[in-house]
Amino acid sequence: METAHYLMALNFSTEFELCHFAINQSGGNKIGKGSFRFVRNGHLKMHPKIYENLALINISGICAATIARHGKEEVRRAYQNFPLDTSMMVMEESERDYEDLKRLISPIARHFLLSPRQVQWNITLAAFSYFLHPGVWEGVTWLATQLQNTNQSNVSHLELLEHIPLQNFYPSLQEAAEVHILNRYPLSKENLQVRLVES
């Protein structure tokens, strides 16, 4: 889940400076092996894209847990039925991420005059689409393996960037990032809408 957060955050390097993974994080409400840290210039205005970037990072852990449990192909078939059927979404150990997601949705919805539910599902579907793109899930699993096998207390972002481009999945990961950014930005009311069929 943490590596999924991290790989999504890599898409937003113009907004956030990624620092490192802290391995075997203890204390607080964090569950899992570690937690990445990023820094943002606090003097910059929090415009809607920043909230959207953070929302995508938050939902990424839920995407990762869902794909890890059900497999890519099963999720690829089922996620197009969201939000009518969300029974396969894995929410365990992601309650904090989900609450943070809902808080981040509000300023986006207000800015674009959309319902929060519509924005939430648009962001959720965009995140699933990203992780199901060839190369991205392979990146998640590779990074998780690297973190499990390290003896260091933390791994720097620069160290990770030295190794990721050497992996077979890297060209596909780059393509996924380009597709995601090209199709989504600049943010607009039109590309934040999603058709919600009420039951």
Largest sheet: 3 strands, antiparallel
Tell me the strand order in the biggest sheet.
Answer: 2-1-3
Q: Residue ranges: pLDDT <50 for 5 or more in a row?
A: 27-33
> Separation of termini?
31 Å
The total of beta strands comes to 3
Which structural traits does this protein have?
8 helices; mainly alpha; 199 residues; three-stranded antiparallel sheet
Short description:
The chain has 199 residues and is mostly helical. 54% of the residues lie in helices and 8% in strands.
Description:
It contains eight helices and three strands. By secondary structure, the chain is mainly alpha-helical. It has a three-stranded antiparallel β-sheet with strand order 2-1-3. Helix 1 packs across helix 2 and helix 2 crosses helix 5. The protein is globular and about 45 Å long. It starts with a helix and ends in a 15-residue tail after the last helix. Mean pLDDT is 86; it is low at 27-33.
List the helices and strands and how they pair.
Layout: H1 2-9, E1 17-23, E2 34-39, H2 48-70, H3 72-78, H4 95-112, H5 116-131, H6 136-149, E3 154-156, H7 157-163, H8 170-184
Antiparallel strand pairs: 1-2, 1-3
Helix pairs in contact: 1-2, 1-6, 2-3, 2-4, 2-5, 4-5
